């Protein structure tokens, strides 16, 4: 039957069937053509091409995953044994990677003959060794143009001098580009963009340290300027900006006065640079404000429209004006005036407002509430270099000026909104920001709520400094939350805080004054105390081999607290004996005495372990160091142990015969 069906299916179709089928198909196609002719034609719109960066695809993929504060940074190996767990370790790890890149580039540059192959097509210039120029090099104008485009300052200066030496004419536009390069970088090489870690971990220098004259006088920039026969406005603008940036304020202002006399029109950026150095030009506060008004008036007369840089430059000068009322009045007037002009403040503007209103010894100001109402929920980009100062300053105000945890959480939420975290600055500012954040939460929130934030951010986002750990330990002491002590001790080990004597003493005090009620916690406290002792011994031995002084002095009080905690465990008598022998044999070099509670606990431990010789040795230590309770301790030994004549005679010599009277009366 199946074979018959297959045979029938292979037979050719009847002609009549084919004709009928063809008619139906033709009719169907006709209907489709008629219906398609009645439909409106869709207009194809080709979208405008969007410029994409080299990491846009990675950013798009990252946005689908989200931010995970509990995960380590991608630059560290995702391995618990390899991830750095201290600020020094993180910096060392990242800088070591960067140093490896620098070493590879140095080897490639020093052995350029070995790296002539080009595997990439088209060639990638960054992978090839750079050209080395000497005093004998044959150079052309194109070499200078290429060096300026690649921001190679020193080589550009050398090539220009070679061109000048060889009497090769350099175009005016190229000279202008070279002038801009040397003025912007002050004749020095800049840190290359690919060295991200070095930029990130570069410690923030204080403003006072940076606000000093570093401009190189009588160098190529001034030579290029004076060589120009017909000076155009851009020549004046570039040189004034360079001098103002590197605080050659006298020459910058003199050049500005020359432009006023010659009626040379400057641009807005140049006026902004002049406003930034107003505090260096005038000493009195009134004269500074008058100078700002004078420069702004000149801008208006030249038909220039101020921008956000102008606003920030004016506010920066106001921060240098002393007092409370005048700076606040000037700042509010300035902000209102620029708002009328349609200038939108940047984060740097709000940073200056905080610096003006929330001064250390000034009256309390709640301007940060108004600022947050204005900018909350917005995404910001970098507009001014000082934009990176806003978040750390705002958190400082929340902690030290207002003591407001709710406002601190609002600031933190804004920081983590979209890409605003890019404005945290560098590692130094990030560490200070989280220090203030932890401090304000630790002092205002319940401990358990604070510990949720602690577990979320530590250690991958933030590693607390010793001052923060100290505040957390104090909060634990106040709340009697001793269950967190083992975690804090383990973090102190990871973060290299075990060489901080104040932290060790505070931790020991917490464990002593808050006796645990569970056997498990008692044993953990004993383990912490012994671990602390062994680490201190290792530090002391290491310092001795290097002929250095140990960072933590093994004082009598410190060893006594450790001894007391070990004795409470009631299971590690050998460890307690080791600590006492340390106290006894080195009592001439150990500063201070242990507390009597520690000696009483050790003597009782000796009694429980039936060690009369050690108990009498501890009694001798107490008697020699003048403990008032020595007689009481001796009486306890006599009552609790069966002693021979030698032991009794020794106790009698140490604390007197009064201690033995009850025993002698019983013997009679």
Automatic annotation (TrEMBL):
Signal peptide: none
A Pfam short name: Rib_mS39_PPR
GO biological process, alphabetically ordered: regulation of translation
Subcellular location: Mitochondrion
GO-annotated cellular components: mitochondrion; ribonucleoprotein complex; ribosome
Transit peptide is among the record's keywords: yes
Alphabetic keyword roster: Mitochondrion, Repeat, Ribonucleoprotein, Ribosomal protein, RNA-binding, rRNA-binding, Transit peptide, Translation regulation
Listed GO MF terms: rRNA binding
Membrane-spanning segments: none
Coiled-coil features, chain-numbered ranges: none
Main location (coarse class): mitochondrion
InterPro entries named among the record's database cross-references: PPR_rpt (IPR002885), PTCD3 (IPR037387), Rib_mS39_PPR (IPR055063), TPR-like_helical_dom_sf (IPR011990)
Family: Belongs to the mitochondrion-specific ribosomal protein mS39 family.
Name the record gives this protein: Small ribosomal subunit protein mS39
Classification lineage: Eukaryota, Metazoa, Ecdysozoa, Arthropoda, Hexapoda
């Amino acid at each position: 039957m199946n074979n018959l069906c297959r045979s029938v299916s292979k037979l050719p179709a009847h002609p009549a069937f084919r004709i009928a089928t063809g008619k139906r198909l033709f009719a169907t196609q006709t209907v489709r053509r008629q219906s398609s002719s009645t439909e409106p034609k869709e207009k194809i719109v080709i979208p405008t091409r969007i410029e994409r960066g080299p990491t846009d695809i990675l950013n798009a993929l990252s946005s689908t995953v989200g931010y995970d504060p509990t995960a380590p940074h991608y630059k560290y190996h995702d391995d618990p044994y390899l991830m750095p767990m201290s600020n020094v370790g993180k910096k060392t790890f990242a800088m070591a990677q960067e140093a490896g890149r620098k070493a590879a580039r140095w080897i490639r540059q020093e052995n350029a003959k070995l790296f002539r192959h080009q595997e990439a097509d088209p060639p990638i210039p960054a992978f090839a060794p750079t050209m080395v120029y000497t005093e004998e090099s044959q150079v052309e104008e194109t070499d200078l143009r290429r060096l300026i485009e690649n921001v190679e300052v020193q080589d550009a200066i050398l090539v220009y001098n070679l061109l000048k030496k060889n009497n090769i004419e350099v175009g005016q536009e190229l000279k202008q580009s070279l002038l801009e390069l040397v003025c912007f970088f002050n004749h020095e090489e800049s840190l290359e963009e690919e060295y991200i870690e070095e930029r990130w971990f570069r410690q923030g220098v204080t403003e006072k340290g940076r606000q000093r004259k570093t401009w190189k006088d009588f160098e190529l920039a001034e030579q290029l300027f004076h060589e120009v026969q017909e000076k155009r406005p851009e020549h004046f603008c570039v040189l004034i900006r360079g001098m103002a940036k590197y605080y050659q304020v006298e020459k910058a202002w003199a050049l500005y006065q020359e432009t006023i006399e010659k009626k040379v029109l400057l641009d807005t950026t140049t006026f902004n640079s002049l406003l930034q150095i107003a505090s260096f030009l005038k000493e009195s506060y009134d004269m500074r404000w008058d100078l700002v008004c004078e420069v702004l008036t000149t801008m208006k007369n030249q038909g220039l429209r101020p921008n956000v840089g102008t606003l920030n430059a004016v506010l920066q000068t106001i921060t240098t004006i002393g007092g409370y009322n005048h700076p606040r009045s000037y700042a509010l007037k300035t902000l209102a005036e620029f708002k009328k002009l349609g200038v939108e403040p940047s984060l740097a503007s709000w940073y200056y407002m905080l610096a003006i209103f929330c001064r250390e010894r000034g009256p309390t100001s709640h301007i940060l509430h108004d600022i947050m109402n204005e900018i909350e929920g917005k995404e910001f980009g970098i507009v001014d270099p000082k934009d990176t100062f806003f978040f750390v300053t705002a958190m400082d105000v929340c902690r030290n000026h207002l003591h407001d945890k709710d406002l601190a959480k609002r600031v933190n939420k804004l920081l983590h909104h979209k890409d605003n975290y890019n404005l945290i600055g560098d590692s130094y500012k990030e560490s200070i920001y989280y220090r203030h954040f932890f401090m304000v939460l630790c002092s205002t929130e319940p401990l358990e709520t604070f510990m949720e934030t602690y577990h979320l951010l530590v250690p991958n986002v933030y590693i607390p400094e010793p001052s923060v750990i100290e505040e957390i330990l104090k909060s634990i002491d106040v709340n009697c939350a001793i269950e967190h002590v083992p975690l804090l001790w383990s973090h102190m080990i990871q973060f290299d805080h075990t060489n901080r004597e104040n932290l060790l003493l505070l931790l020991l005090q917490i464990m002593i004054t808050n006796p645990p009620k569970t056997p498990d916690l008692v044993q953990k406290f004993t383990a912490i105390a012994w671990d602390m002792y062994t680490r201190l011994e290792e530090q002391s031995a290491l310092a001795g081999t290097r002929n250095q002084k140990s960072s933590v002095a093994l004082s009598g009080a410190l060893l006594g607290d450790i001894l007391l905690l070990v004795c409470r465990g009631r299971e590690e008598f050998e460890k307690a004996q080791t600590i006492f022998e340390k106290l006894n044999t080195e009592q001439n070099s150990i500063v201070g005495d242990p507390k009597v509670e520690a000696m009483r606990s050790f003597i009782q431990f000796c009694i429980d372990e039936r060690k009369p010789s050690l108990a009498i040795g501890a009694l001798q230590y107490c008697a020699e160091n003048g403990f008032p309770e020595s007689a009481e301790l001796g009486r306890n030994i006599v009552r609790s142990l069966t002693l021979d004549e030698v032991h009794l005679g020794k106790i009698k010599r140490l604390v007197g015969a009064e201690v033995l009277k009850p025993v002698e009366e019983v013997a009679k």
